[in-house]
Design goal:
single chain, alpha+beta, two-stranded antiparallel ribbon, 4 strands
Length: 116
């Protein structure tokens, strides 16, 4: 019987925050970072190729689970509106992204320990 070589494989993990249902993961974190960077939900949706209505559903679900607002939106005139993350949203994104980095490092170490 041939010995299996695991060297060609990689490990991939995915972190999701869950209450009664999934509500926050890598995609939502990316959406919020893009909103923060661009200043508009519309631009973030365009970059992610996501419908505006889907983004609003995601935002509302996260706000429901957290029990607080995560964005402040202002309707705009000629130049359009703006969307700003709340301090709670920035804190959530920072915590989630940091945790995801730590988990990725641990996962890689565990993979090496058990497979390489």
């Amino acid at each position: 019987m041939a010995k299996v070589s695991y060297k060609k494989f990689k490990i991939k993990s995915r972190i999701t925050l869950v209450s009664d249902e999934k509500f926050f993961g890598r995609g939502v974190s990316e959406l919020l970072r893009l909103i923060d960077k661009s200043g508009t939900m519309q631009e973030a949706c365009k970059i992610m190729d996501m419908s505006y209505s889907k983004a609003w559903k995601i935002i509302k679900r996260v706000e429901k689970e957290l029990g607080c607002k995560i964005i402040t939106a202002k309707s705009g005139g000629i130049k359009g509106g703006t969307t700003v993350l709340t301090d709670e949203a920035r804190d959530l994104v920072n915590r989630f992204d940091s945790m995801e980095e730590d988990v990725a490092k641990y996962t890689e170490e565990a993979f090496k320990k058990y497979f390489l």
